Structure formats: structure tokens, C-alpha cells
């Protein structure tokens, strides 16, 4: 009854099904691992944001320090003075609504003399043209105290941004301490501070960057379940198709074996005429 399964068409169908099963299982685990990574990232960010703030130079003590993942987003503080002469902006950055503008980054000289920190003071809208320096609220003068989040510096390799030469004056593609240390000659501590507050508060400042969303786990678990359901449906689908064809073949065989005297007389005369 099922000898048709040995035909070329059905052998190819079953081979494709056998290849799809491990592939869909693997895709399901890939989405599961993405879900687990997202959950772990959210937990890490949540712990970092709620931890008691500590001085910046205790987290990033030296120039060139590579900020590890477990310190990224850590709440931190700094006291000192801004260096507006070496301020710069970072191109093609968006605010919370998706509007493209600039991040304003100003070096900050620590009061304890342990180094200089790059401070991302926030977002500003684009100016008249892309070649002109945008309107930027001035950094506070005198000694101020900052609170913020520790961020790892950006690199061309990790960001996928191309290192393009010929940018307008004081405009850059990344927040990178090595790049700025070569430009300013200052010993910049690794990473940078993403500003959340200033004491005393300035009258005007760039739009502060909101904290990262660490509650959304994304759709990855749902995608994993969908892939595994599809895995289970593959053999069921093959079985349903095989049963359907077996019934169709049995029906055709039965119709081919109907004797002539079993056909109604009217039908025979009509066919003879």
C-alpha cells in the first residue's frame, strides 16, 4: 500500500524532511540562547544601574583601561572641571524619538588629578548643515560634581562604523579615548561617563540620554517555541501527505477494478452510442 514511498519523488521529500528536522531544532536553540543572553544582559544592567555610585577613577583607574561587561552601565561619580576647549560632537546619533543629531562629548579634568574623563553630556539636534558645528549648550564652568553611567569606549571594529577621513572640525564618528588622547595629548581614563546629572544643575544642557531598557526580553523565546513546533510538524506533515496519497491510490485502484455488469445499463448504452 505504501510502496510509492520508494519512488524518487517521495524519497526526495523524506530526505528534505530529515534535513529540516535538525536544522529547525538548532534554530530553536539559537533563539533560546539569544533569549538567555538578553535576560542575562538585562539583569546585569539592572544591577549596575541600582548599585551605589562610586568614583569614576575607581572603576577605570588608568588610561587605556578596557571597561569589562560586568562594569558597563555601572553608576559612577566624578568631581572636577570641564575642558570645553577640547569638546567635540559625535555624528549620526539619535534621541529617544529617533531624530538624528549629535552627542556632545566634553573632557572632564578630575579634581583629584588622577586623569581626564570623556563625558557624554547628551544629545543635540543638527545645525544648519552637516559640515557646521551644531549649536551646543556651554558646559558648566568651575568645579562641578557629576553622576552618570560607565560606558565602554566605542571602536570601529565593534560598531561597524567606517573610519572616514575628512570630517568637519571637532566632529567624530565614535567616542574613543585613544583617538581623543592623540588629539588633545591628555591622559584619558578608559571608557567614558554617560551623564545623568550635574551639581549644581546648569541652566541649559544637551538632552540627557535615557537609561537603557532592561525590562524587555524580546521575542526570542517565542521564536524558539515556534521553531520547535515546526520541528514537530514536519514528520506529522509527511505522514498526512503519505496517508492522503495512499487513500487516493487505493481509490483509483478500486475504480479501475469495477466489473462491467456493476455499471448501470444506461451508462453502458450511452458509452456504446
Walk me through what this model shows.
This protein has a 5-stranded mixed beta barrel with strand order 2-4-5-8-6. It is α/β, with parallel strands linked by helices and 273 residues long. The longest helix has 43 residues. The two termini are 37 Å apart. The C terminus is likely disordered. Helices cover 38% and strands 21% of the residues. The protein has 6 helices and 8 strands.
For the structure shown, list the relevant keywords.
5-stranded mixed beta barrel, alpha/beta, 21% strand
Q: Pick out the low-confidence regions.
A: 267-273
Shape: elongated
Describe the main β-sheet briefly: 5 strands, mixed, barrel
User: How many runs of DSSP E, i.e. beta strands?
Assistant: 8
What's the multimeric state?
single chain
DSSP summary: helix tally: 6
> What value does the average pLDDT take?
87
User: What share of the residues lie within helices?
Assistant: 25-40%
Topology as a string of helices (H) and strands (E): HEHEEEEEHEHEHH
Helix/strand-derived class? alpha/beta
Rg from alpha-carbon coordinates: 33 Å
Secondary structure elements and their pairing?
Elements: H1 8-50, E1 54-55, H2 56-59, E2 75-82, E3 88-94, E4 100-110, E5 116-125, E6 144-151, H3 156-159, E7 171-172, H4 177-184, E8 192-199, H5 220-256, H6 265-272
Parallel strand pairs: 1-2, 3-7, 5-8
Antiparallel strand pairs: 2-4, 2-6, 3-4, 4-5, 6-8
Helix pairs in contact: 1-5
Quick synopsis:
The protein is an alpha/beta fold and 273 residues long.
Amino acid at each position: 500500500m505504501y510502496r510509492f514511498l520508494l519512488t524518487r519523488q517521495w524519497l526526495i521529500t523524506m530526505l528534505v524532511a530529515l534535513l529540516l528536522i535538525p536544522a529547525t531544532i538548532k534554530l530553536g536553540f539559537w533563539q533560546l540562547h539569544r533569549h538567555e543572553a538578553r535576560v542575562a544582559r538585562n539583569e546585569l544592567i539592572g544591577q549596575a544601574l541600582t548599585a551605589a555610585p562610586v568614583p569614576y577613577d575607581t572603576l577605570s583607574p588608568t588610561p587605556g583601561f578596557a571597561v569589562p561587561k560586568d562594569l558597563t552601565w555601572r553608576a559612577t561619580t566624578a568631581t572636577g572641571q570641564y575642558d570645553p576647549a577640547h569638546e567635540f560632537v559625535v555624528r549620526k546619533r539619535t534621541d529617544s524619538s529617533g531624530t538624528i543629531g549629535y552627542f556632545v562629548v566634553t573632557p572632564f579634568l578630575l579634581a583629584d588629578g588622577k586623569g581626564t574623563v570623556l563625558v557624554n553630556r547628551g544629545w543635540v539636534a543638527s545645525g544648519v548643515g552637516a559640515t557646521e558645528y551644531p549649536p551646543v549648550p556651554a558646559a558648566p564652568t568651575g568645579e562641578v560634581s557629576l553622576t552618570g553611567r560607565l560606558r565602554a569606549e566605542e571602536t570601529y571594529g565593534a560598531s561597524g562604523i567606517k573610519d572616514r577621513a575628512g570630517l568637519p572640525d571637532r566632529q567624530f564618528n565614535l567616542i574613543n579615548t585613544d583617538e581623543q588622547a592623540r588629539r588633545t595629548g591628555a591622559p584619558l581614563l578608559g571608557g567614558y561617563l554617560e551623564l545623568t546629572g550635574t551639581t549644581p544643575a546648569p541652566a541649559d544642557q544637551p538632552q540627557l540620554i535615557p537609561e537603557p531598557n532592561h525590562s524587555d526580553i524580546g521575542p526570542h523565546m517565542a521564536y524558539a517555541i515556534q521553531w520547535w513546533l515546526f520541528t514537530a510538524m514536519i514528520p506529522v506533515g509527511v505522514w498526512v501527505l503519505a496517508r492522503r496519497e495512499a487513500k487516493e491510490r487505493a481509490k483509483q485502484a478500486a475504480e479501475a477494478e469495477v466489473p462491467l455488469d456493476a455499471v448501470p445499463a444506461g451508462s453502458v448504452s450511452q458509452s456504446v452510442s
